[in-house]
Amino acid sequence: MTGVSDAQSFSRDAFTGHLFDLDGVITPTAEVHMRAWARMFQGFLDSRGVTEPYTDEDYFAYVDGKPRYDGVRSFLTSRGIELPEGEDADAADQAAGKETVRGLGNRKNDMVLTLIRTEGVAPYPGTVAYLDALGSQARLAIVSSSRNAEEVLTSAGLRERFEHIVDGNVARAEGLPGKPAPDTFEHAADLLGVPHEQCVVYEDAVSGVQAGAAGRFGAVIGVDRGAGHDVLARAGATLVVSDLEELA
């Protein structure tokens, strides 16, 4: 991995492949996901009489960047709560006491889709400026744990910018483990046909940065949307910025 001490030391044109996380890097949908997770988990805890509230710290520690059901499982484990795994088709509105891991994940996803469809999605201006600054040789892909990446990118007007989308649907179909494993990023690089060491990973989540650091990539750019510069650096980011416009 290339060592980069500051934004001025990073040369975007030195890399051919650019692998972007979606939520929190391309669009502020990470905020939508945070709101949906908080609403879903707090409602679940209240229904069980759990007095310790769900917090933003829980989101960053157990949920951020992970596949949906992994996030549910991780948070429940942190609270010592066990639920049946259930099935992908489990209803989101299952009654209290009959919930499953997958049912809770589906409940959260329904909330996200409602928020996206009612409020729309606008990309980060700084990210758009960075995409505009990438040279004609740049090959771009999205690597997201979300299963709604196509809809979000289309809503943001950016779908045509990316050759490939490796999202939760692709990961499931291909049997790829989610972040913090590097497999989804590696799959995206392979789809682009670009050697991994010629690719850059862009991530805002600790689990995503860990995934990039675990792969054979040229650089991992952490985008701090709340996780913390030091936290992302410790997770393995080559360079941490507050916005991709710093690299444009």
Number of discrete domains: 2
Number of helices: 10
Low-confidence stretches: none
Radius of gyration over C-alpha positions, nearest whole angstrom: 18 Å
Query: Residue share in helices?
Result: 40-55%
What general form does the structure show? Answer: globular
CATH-scheme architecture of the largest domain? 3-Layer(aba) Sandwich
How would you characterize the overall build of this protein?
This protein has helices spanning about 30-45, 55-65, 70-80, 100-120, 125-135, 150-155, 170-175, 185-190, 205-215, 230-235, and strands at about 15-20, 140-145, 165, 200-205, 220-225, 240. The protein has about 250 residues and is an alpha/beta fold. It has two domains: about 5-30 and about 120-245, Rossmann fold; about 30-120, DNA polymerase, domain 1 (Orthogonal Bundle), CATH 1.10.150. The protein has a six-stranded parallel β-sheet. Strand 4 (about 200-205), helix 9 and strand 5 form a beta-alpha-beta unit. The longest helix is centred in the N-terminal third of the chain and has 19 residues, at about 30-45.
